[in-house]
Write a structure and sequence with these properties.
heterodimer, A: 283 residues, mainly alpha, MetI-like fold, two-stranded antiparallel sheet, 73% helix, globular, B: 283 residues, 2 domains, 11 helices
Chain lengths: 283, 283
């Protein structure tokens, strides 16, 4: 059992080393900087510029966070501070079910619900023509996917805030909302930050749902109504044909390595913060 | 600020909170609603009892039995394999090791981090191992990839469940002269409903995932008979058939989405009842 435990822990390292080893041939003739900044993606010519894909990922993630964070914060505050426990008992499980819905179902929903709305109602006001398969659609679908992480973690964090703090503020004449804004949120800030970082890393790695709705154009998007091509979608779409072109598989493994490293660091940071909150609360 | 202004501010935010609460909790119904509306017209008896006929992507006849069975084999196999690995690990971390020892803390952090790694990275990693070993895309490859994916889920859930068992139970067993292995058996008996919850969670994740099985499982119109044959899974069936130009094939995708959603919702409901039963078992 000791061996099994240690083996599974070192699996984190193994993943990183394995991906690096497969991606290494790419570094022989290109510097890391030119990989990040190059915008030309032509595998058959040996050109691998990741800039459009990194930008695609960033756009989609930012839209998702910008949509989900305010909604989820307000929801979590409402559930933790205002709502009756009966309301809380209905809504929290509903939100948690969202976490169990498979990505591909989100994708189907995105195609038949979000994409038409973007195409027919939102986009015509701003651009001349849009297929609806845009980074905005991808961002909205992702936002719904990260609802459960944000709502459940933030409301847990809000529950750890001592009642005495709130009572003190209320007894000094602050309204309930002022207490929340100035006392509760201030105290909960590290936890909210950690939850957001977790949600960002989830959004970074989400593959299929985003791939299905955001157009997959290998050009860095200029507005929310442009198509984008996030990194995970790049891996998923091209894995089949990668064996025929030299260095192609290394490039895709590099994309996987990039995702792995970013998400590893993000998760690490947020887990350390959350663990610290939990320990403070339980002691 | 006057008290009136302060009260208005509170009211405005309260309305915003209720509104976002409604948005967040209604998104589940929007998703399930879209899938039901799209899927119900195509959900026939043939759909669940026949394999696709006349060729994948263009054949109009038949159903998705191959994908249903493929998914069940895949998720079932991975869950069994995952349990065999993760139960010993969580017993070791919680019962054999001292509470709060360096190894158990490192392990918990490692599993938290692994839990956040996106499935596409697991898929890419498993795929390169398969190339290295010379295994072609098959049910076995998919089972391995999904097992890697669900081990962190199983370990984390089991860990939480074991955490709800009072430590005195372990101490009582040990003080009566039981070995730690016998104490572990006592605790395992105590957390039985929790283990079922973990199984369902892992199964649900395994059955819904696309990115990990995309390169490792392949796709086939036939029901797999051996583990070295490629197999279809429901999420992949949705993903591939959705892009078909033939309406009947697209219909199969909608029906598959509905079937997958029903499976997930059943899993959620069952595990909800199990977990409420689990909390009744307090000593």
């Amino acid at each position: 059992m000791l061996i099994l435990s240690i083996a599974s822990i070192s699996f984190v390292l193994l993943l990183g080393i394995g991906l690096y080893w497969r991606a290494a041939p790419l570094f022989d003739n290109q510097s890391l900087w030119s990989l990040f900044s190059g915008s030309e993606w032509a595998p058959s010519k040996g050109k691998f510029g990741f800039y459009p894909f990194i930008m695609g990922t960033l756009w989609v993630t930012c839209i998702a966070i910008a949509t989900a964070l305010p909604l989820c914060l307000l929801t979590a505050i409402y559930l933790a501070e205002y709502a009756k426990s009966s309301v809380r008992k209905i809504i929290l499980p509903l939100v948690n079910i969202l976490a169990g819905i498979p990505p591909v179902i989100y994708g189907v929903w995105g195609i038949f619900f979000v994409v038409p709305i973007v195409r027919d109602y939102l986009a015509p006001g701003f651009t001349e023509h849009s297929s609806g398969y845009t980074v905005l659609a991808g961002g909205v679908v992702l936002a719904v996917m990260i609802f459960p992480i944000l709502v459940s973690i933030v409301s847990e964090v809000l529950h750890t805030i001592p009642k005495e703090l709130k009572d003190a503020s209320l007894s000094l004449g602050a309204t309930k909302w002022e207490t929340i804004r100035k006392v509760v949120l201030k105290r909960a800030l590290p936890g909210i930050f950690a939850a957001t970082v977790l949600a960002v890393s989830r959004a970074f790695g989400e593959t299929i749902a985003v791939l299905m709705v955001c157009g997959n154009v290998p050009v860095a998007p200029d507005s929310v109504f442009d198509g984008g091509y996030p990194l995970p979608a790049l891996i998923a779409n091209n894995f089949g044909e990668m064996m025929s072109i030299p260095l192609y598989d290394s490039a895709l493994m590099f994309a996987a390595l990039l995702l792995f490293v970013i998400i590893l660091v993000f998760n690490w940071i947020s887990r350390i913060i959350l663990n610290r909150i939990e320990r403070k609360y339980s002691s | 600020m006057s008290i009136k202004k302060r009260k208005t501010e509170e009211l405005v935010f309260k309305i915003l909170m209720v509104a976002s609460c409604i948005v967040v909790s209604s998104s589940l119904f929007l998703i399930v609603g879209t899938i039901v509306v799209k899927g119900v017209p195509y959900l026939t008896w043939d759909m669940v009892t026949k394999v696709p006929q006349g060729g994948f992507y263009i054949g109009k006849e038949g159903g998705v039995l191959n994908a249903i069975l493929g998914s069940l084999y895949l998720a079932g196999g991975a869950t069994v394999l995952g349990l065999l690995i993760s139960i010993p690990i969580s017993i070791y971390l919680n019962i054999y090791l001292k509470h709060g020892s360096l190894l158990s803390r490192t392990a918990k952090l490692a599993y938290d981090v692994l839990f956040g790694i996106p499935s596409i990275v697991y898929g890419a990693f498993a795929f390169s191992i398969m190339i290295w070993l010379g295994v072609r895309a098959s049910l076995l490859g998919g089972i391995i990839a999904v097992t890697l994916l669900i081990i962190p889920i199983l370990v984390r859930t089991l860990d939480e469940v074991i955490g709800t068992v009072p430590r005195e139970l372990k101490h009582a067993a040990l003080s009566l002269g039981a070995t730690r292995w016998e104490a572990a058996k006592v605790i395992l008996k105590q957390i039985k409903p929790g283990i079922y919850t973990a199984i369902l969670l892992a199964f649900g994740r395994g059955i819904g995932d696309v990115a990990a099985v995309l390169f490792t499982t392949g796709f086939s119109d036939n029901i797999p008979r051996y583990v070295d044959e490629p197999a279809a899974t429901l999420p992949l069936a949705i993903f591939f058939q959705l892009s078909s130009p033939v309406p009947e094939v697209q219909g199969r995708a909608y029906a598959s989405a509905l079937i997958l959603t029903i499976i997930i919702l059943v899993i959620v409901v069952v595990s909800y009842f199990l977990s409420s039963k689990h909390t009744k078992h307090k000593i």
